[in-house]
Design brief:
71 residues; 38% helix; alpha+beta; elongated; 3 helices
């Protein structure tokens, strides 16, 4: 399989890009686990996903969770 230069550049860009949380929309608890509905920067709200609290904290989003909980 061979790829063109633009295809390789796009693949490299996608590999190095990181999803950025724009805001937390909702919260739910399933058994003992807490999940937050995440609105991703540069994505439609329809593409929001449920992410575990543990993973969000690992990604350094504790302060965003704290702000959401204050509401």
């Amino acid at each position: 399989v061979s790829y063109t230069a633009p295809q390789l550049m796009l693949a490299q860009k996608e590999k190095s890009s990181k999803y950025v949380v724009e805001k937390l929309l909702d919260k739910k608890k399933i058994k003992k686990y807490i999940y937050y509905k995440v609105k991703w920067k540069n994505y439609n709200i329809s593409e929001a996903t449920w992410e575990s609290r543990v993973e969000l904290i690992k990604d350094g989003l504790q302060s965003m969770i704290d702000d959401f909980e204050k509401k």
